[in-house]
Design goal:
The strands form 3 sheets. Strands 1, 2, 3, 4, 5, 6, 7, 8, 9, 10, 11, 14 and 15 form a 13-stranded mixed sheet that branches. The protein has a two-stranded antiparallel ribbon with strand order 12-13. Strands 16-17 form a two-stranded antiparallel sheet. It has a domain of 328 residues: Alpha/Beta hydrolase fold, catalytic domain (Rossmann fold, 3-Layer(aba) Sandwich). By secondary structure, it is α/β, with parallel strands linked by helices. Helix 3 packs across helix 15, helix 4 packs across helix 5 and helix 8 packs across helix 11. The protein contains 18 helices and 17 strands. A hairpin with a 2-residue loop joins strand 16 and strand 17.
Length: 515
Amino acid sequence: MSSVAGPSNVWSIPSICLFAVLWCGAAVADSDRLPPSFENVTYTDTNEVSFVGDIAFTPCRVTLLGGHYRNLECASLAVPLNPNKPKEASISLFIGRLKAIGKKTQPDPLVLIQGGPGAASSETFLFPGQGFDKILQQRDLYIIDQRGTGKSGRLSCPGLNADLWEYDAQTSRALVAACLNEMPGGVEFYTSSIAVKDLELVREALGVDRWNLYGVSYGSRVAQHYLRRYPAVTRSVILDGVVHPQHILGPELALQSQRALDQFEARCSGDESCGKEFPELGKGIETLFKQLKHQPIEVQFEDFVTGKQASLTFGSAHLVAVIRMALYSPDAAAILPVLLRAAYRDQNFSPLARNAYQTIENLAEMMSIGMHNTVVCSEDVSLLKEHSIDREALSKTYMGEDAINSLIDTCEVWPKGPVDTDFKQPVKSDNPVLLLSGGVDPITPPEYAEKAAEELSNSFHVIAKNLGHGLAAKGCVPTLMAKFISQANTKGLDGDCIADAIASPVFIDFNGPAP
């Protein structure tokens, strides 16, 4: 079933359980027992433990990016690094629990699965305003960092994350090889096929009979494969910014982002105030790329966070990063024309450089490049055929061929891991599935969700034609998701409340949009 709002042609962040033993506020029997140690986790009362099944949760505070924090309960579960050799090396998964806050609670929790690949659930879903507060009224939320991300043995490569460079094949391979040398053994065991086995081990350890899944972007790939493997214990699924199982990441990255940029330029030109203020936006972007490819600009600016002076050699790769990341959200894209005009008209690159600098810093802190590489190289690039790459079309995009070339270079160096034989096959299921798409999403357009829904007989697709990547927190969607989870059924769902949601108005200057 599909509710398509607007045209459909338009990833590189409780209760007394009926099924488990839950000892709320029980003291730790063994005085020598300590809670697991995780980065940015402070335990607020180590003498108080809540047991869910076999897993002991301790009250904790998790510090987030920018100094924000969230109080919850924290635990861990050791899982085998190589599932085929369970008695050998293991890794520790971080498990966070937000307890349901309503008087009448339900036994089936919601698990939140983050995208990337390489982002961590604990570094995204604990921020306020993520769209799950209504669900939290009745159900526990579980924040589980996928193996290789966040607090579950993050596979970081600071040398690859900390800066951007103009693409060069030799440099790219050398940096990836240096990154690989910093990795622990077994980097190949961080694929999605193994990650869904981890999720099932967590469910079994919790003693949860059934649970609900929310997966965003790459997380939708993980959620669909879990549904394929464990349908009997999957009560319902929400897929947000959907990657259909057959999709091979890489060849369409630049094409989809160019589509989103074209849509944004059309939106601007069709708006009276935006069109008047930025009559040459597209031409200005072309001019900037020509200028920066010829000669990067040394820029001094004030750091957003510290207030101190910083510097950056701003090149075309930085411009790509600013544009691409802004297009994920119309809220972020609203200020993009002002940033670009300051550079192409006034040769003031400070606003763009400041934005790029902060974007790079945030990605470096939040992304696990090692896990990302294992997933993409094993599940996507290993299946890629040169004849499937439309290089002529890519060369006409603002991103060009650098993104796909960089992925290919990376995967010539990076080891490949286990992928289930049916991983790229459609998921056929009659379990209830809610699909969410943004009409101007620059990486997972609505047609990807439509493709996934072909074999999901009990699905409902909502498209917000003016919004971007990830709808969970937008408008009426939190209420829609809460209703869907509550009834575990698509009947009576109505996506019209978000269909025509208006994107944030475009800024005409640094003071804001037109009055």
